[in-house]
Structures are given as structure tokens and as C-alpha cells.
Write a structure and sequence with these properties.
The protein is an alpha/beta fold. Helices cover 44% and strands 14% of the residues. It folds into 2 domains: 1-52; 54-241, Uracil-DNA Glycosylase, subunit E, CATH 3.40.470.10. It contains 10 helices and 9 strands. The structure holds iron/sulfur cluster (SF4).
Length: 249
Amino acid sequence: MGKDSMKREELRESLGAYLDLIDEAEAVIASTTYQPKEHDLSTIIDVLAPPPLDLDSIEGANLRVLQAMVESCTKCRLYEGRTMTVFGEGSVPARVMVIGEGPGAEEDRSGRPFVGRAGEYLDTWLKSIHLERGKGVYIANIVKCRPPNNRDPQNDERAACMPYLKRQIQLVKPQLILLLGRTAAQVLLETDEGVGALRGRYHRYEGIPTVVTYHPAAVLRNTDTLRRPVWEDLKRVAAFLGIDLGRRS
Ligand code: SF4
């Protein structure tokens, strides 16, 4: 066993012993809240003693390495037109991982997901269920580079980028995934069905409960029809996470 691996194993044993000893429902270690009886220790160990970097393996990458891989990626034609890659950002581990389709013009300029009008609207959705980006929420997209003229990412582009997202989800460890729009839903759930048919129930991605709703940009274009179903979907997210929304209906 290498030096790094030994350090990680020692840390796992020490933390395990510490969490067994304390008589608390929760412990805060390095800004992350752990429930000793329920949480595995891999996230905190990744923070305190990052695994050795493997610049060639997506499967072995931590988030820092994964982001570096994305920033230099040329696996599909979308790299040609990008200003910046948009890797994703937020809390790790996350209560909710929000996944959209791909960067638009403002995201491409800033390198951040869901900025601009649709992003601001998404923030109000999160606020309505007492969540906030960066506070228990992680936001990412199916493709990390902007498709030209905001067209849908094509099948080969989705397939090329999906391994990054797959690994990102493993590392972010969300309690629930919220998929925004048809492309995100179809790619992750491997279906041809539209949002109308997929929303209104829980799905699972790799065992993680998953909710589908409309993309904020689509709701902004058709508020009268889509706002109500989105609110129902957000209530489903809140219910799963045990968030008390009071008497609002
Ligand atoms: S969209 Fe994804 S696969 Fe394509 S170049 Fe960008 S990072 Fe690479």
C-alpha cells in the first residue's frame, strides 16, 4: 500500500473511532455535517487526504482533477466554440444536485452554471423550498461546453461528456437529483419520453432518487402553463428532503 493510501486508511480508522465515541446525532468536521450512524467517511477523507492524482482516469479523479480534465477537454466538437468550460459548482456533499442541459451565452462567458435570467429564476425556485445554491445545492450540466446558438447537444456530444457528469455525481453524492428540462431527463434516465410524461414521480439514477421538472428558460417562456407543475415538483423535492414548507400550498 502506498504512503497516500496508508494515510487515508489511518484517517478512516481515526475518524470512525472518533464518531463512535461521541454521543451526538451530528458532528461537524471541516465544515461538513456528518451523521455518525449514517454517513460513510469517503467525502471527508477526500477533503482531508485527497487521493493520489491520476490525470488519465476519469474514474479515479477527484473533483479538482475532474475539473482540470474538463478544462482541457477536446473530446467533442463543442470545445471549438467555447470561451470557458462550465464545470459546475456548489456544496459537496449536496442535498440536491441540479442538472441542466448545457451552458448558454452568459455561462460560457462566466464559466458558471445557470447565471443570467434563467439562473436567477432557478434561484427563486430553490429559495421557495428553503434551499440556496452553494448551501446544500450543487449545479451542473449534461455538457460542459456551450452548443452553438443554444442548440440541443447532439447525441455524440452528450455521450462524450457524460463520463464527466457520471463521476461528478459520484463525488458530489447528492441525496436527490433534480433534472431540468427534456435533454437532462432523457440523457440521465435513458428514455425518449418528454418532461410532461416523466415529471410527477420519483425516478432513480444509479440508486439516487431523481425528480424531473421543466427548464427555467422554458417556464419563463410559458409561465402561465408551467409554473404550477414546477411548484408541484419542487414540493416533491422538499418532501423527500424533509423540508417543512409551512402552510403554503
Ligand atoms: S462538451 Fe464535454 S466532451 Fe465536449 S469538449 Fe466540452 S468537456 Fe469535452
